[in-house]
Amino acid sequence: MTTPSAPALEVKNISLAFKGVKAISDLSFEVAPQEICALIGPNGAGKSSLLNILNGVYVPDSGEIIFEGEHFHRMQPLEAARRGIGRGFQNNALFSGMSVADNVIAGLSRHARATLLEEALLLPRARAEARRFRERAHEVLRLFDLERHAETTVALLPYGVQKKVELARAIVAAPRLLLLDEPLAGMNSAEKQEIAQIIARLNRDLKLTIVLIEHDIGIVLKLAHHVVVLDYGRKLADGAPDTIRDNPEVIAAYLGHDKVEIAA
Amino acid sequence: MSDIELRLTGGIGEGASTRTLVGIAAAALIVALPFLATEYWINAIAVPFLILSLAGLGLNLLTGYAGQISLGAGAFMMVGAYAAFAFQLRLPELPLPLALIAAGIVAGAVGFAFGFPSTRIKGFYLIVSTLAAQFFFEWLFLKFPWFYNGDPSATISLPAGLSVFGIDLNSPHGRYYLTLASVAVLTWLSYNLVRSQPGRNWMALRDMDTAAAVIGVPILRAKLQAFAVSSFILGIAGALWAFAYLGSASVQSFGLTRSYQILFIIIIGGMGTIRGAYFGAAFVSLLPLALDWLFQRLLGGHVDAGLLQNIQKVIFGVLILWFLIKEPEGLARLLQRQRGDLGNRRLARLKIRRQT
What is the pTM (predicted TM-score) of this model? Predict the structure, then answer.
């Protein structure tokens, strides 16, 4: 996918090592605005580490991130959120003791302006803010058909529903870049289709740029506009889904024997 | 899925009016208690129970809601008590309610300061740092006579006793109502906080701190807020403990045993619930009395009194253990289950559904 405009996100010469073990070495790639970019590669290829660098959980040893024209040598988690980078986690990182609605509202936290005293005394500004947040949360829950679960504690919900709650929480603050770590993991094929459709819809309707990690190659090749293949922290291939499918190096290293069969 | 929903939608609104009635009756009983109970019951049971509930509430905001384990509850109570004493002694024009609030603010500021290590360390290491607060303030308030106004026995008591705008509150009734009013107001404020953004931030921090930071929860501010608010409430509880319950206090009134007691209250009552603090305080303060009464009835005069006391402590300890094995999530959870709570039925059904 070639676009005339500047990339939304640029990863430039990023390297990361854990106690001397290289997780990512000299990785560079670009993500165009409003595209779905899939990161694929075997376990330990450095995909999750890269997402963690992008929103400031890890600090890279070298290299930089350019997000919407601004250069960052290291991102801070809060700064990333403030700049509009949303994130979904590999293993559900929901707040298990809180209701679905409260989980989603927590994603609006950085927009809260009411002071502690205003909240404690239920002053008008706190109440108005609470109402606004709740409305916004319900708007997003409707998008995911989750409204009926709004007041349920998330720990009581099935895994597939929890994954949707996590997506809702990630987009509630209207990010411009969404990072998703295996959003389809642990789901049956019907659930996978549903989530994949939701992701495609978020990308199309909300004009969200999405970077996602996924192992289900069939879905990745259909969903993504752009695929980056990682292996042992290095970039193996980078291009449109079609070119990736036919790339002999990719087939050898990751996709294994023969050609990839694409499941319907 | 839809079949679960259908079965659960009924029954939520049911009993709301009976619950209101029960609530009103309970409130009336609580307000009228001094006229129904003996002085002993008010002084030795109701007042300490209320204050321990308040302290439990304060610690529960920090430990139960924000997930920061603290063994410094006694220290922050101590700061509140000594601050209230200093305000009443040196600023007598400040009315008692304002002195209590000011004492809470001083304790809150101290809690805020002792919250800083929590931005770097977690769990056991944080316990050590809150323990440091405990030992530091025990030392501080004994070391400098200014804090206890040079009293020969190093104790503090209010120079003018308890009075609010000219109304004398030194009677058992006065102490009870002062305590009750403080507990009611602070419970209301806490309830509002845990249901709004600060409370959500605290729980997010407790359940999954990395995820919280990444989705934009201001972790640092939330932690320090939790320490400050928790210590504010503990400080007022400490001032009440010293002057509305004990009458005169010293650092021993707020030793490490007190910190443990407050921690037990929230563990037994239920972490992360407002009512858990009341259940826990009732367990901790009423059960020993009940045991005492029972033993006096059964064995009074036959067995050595000292031995009897030790046996009671053993039984109390065993009961705590038994109870925590039966219901690790505390009394609040146990009572919820007894009522056949919706959430649990839902959980049970979901489990069945996932197995099939």
Answer: 0.87
